[in-house]
Design goal:
Structural class: mainly beta
Pfam family, one: DUF5999
Mean pLDDT: 86
InterPro entries: DUF5999 (IPR046041)
Largest sheet: 5 strands, antiparallel
Distance between the termini: 41 Å
Strand order of the largest sheet: 1-2-3-4-5
Order of helices and strands: EEEEE
Shape: globular
């Protein structure tokens, strides 16, 4: 797996945050939050949006992935 972190961002957390290409990349530490604008920057360079959409390093957009609820 290729490391997609930018040259200026390196993780100093223990354990190290998951890479942006890892399936669990949303588990990385928030390094900058702008909840009033609806987004947060993770240590691995991923931008999370409040609608669950994402912007990965390199400009790749990920559509929101909302959970479907089963009818009771």
């Amino acid at each position: 797996m290729q490391d997609t972190r930018s040259e200026t961002m390196s993780c100093s957390h223990t354990p190290e945050c998951p890479d942006a290409a890892a399936p669990d990349h949303e588990a990385a530490v928030i390094v900058s939050s702008h909840y009033e604008q609806g987004w947060a920057l993770l240590c691995n360079g991923v931008v999370l949006f409040e609608d669950t959409g994402e912007l990965l390093p390199g400009g790749i957009a990920v559509e929101p992935h909302r959970r479907a609820f089963a009818a009771a």
